[in-house]
Amino acid sequence: MTQQEEFQKRIVSRAIKDEKFREELKKNPKMVIERELGHIFPKDIQFNVIEQDEKTFNIILPKIPNAENLSEEELKKIAGGGFIQSFAPCTGLISCP
Length: 97
Fold this sequence. Notes:
Number of domains: 1
Mean pLDDT: 80
Distance between the termini: 16 Å
Shape: extended
Helix content: 40-55%
Structural class: mainly alpha
Largest sheet: none
Strand content: under 5%
Low-confidence stretches: 82-97
Number of helices: 4
């Protein structure tokens, strides 16, 4: 499991158990994530929290880098729904390619 997946699992688990935390996360996700990671992200970095319900399915499309610079393997990952890079820019907290 990647650091991003572990962190997301921890945040979601806490949000399920703690209604106050859940509401705070929905109202100001960046502040909560910065607090939980102990790291301040640049002002231009945004975080979105979407609350799932029974009748809504959310699809998150990864940003596709310039295809000319991608290997065949990376193109296959994108086409198959894989991810190439973490949710945040290289900060030292999350591994980067």
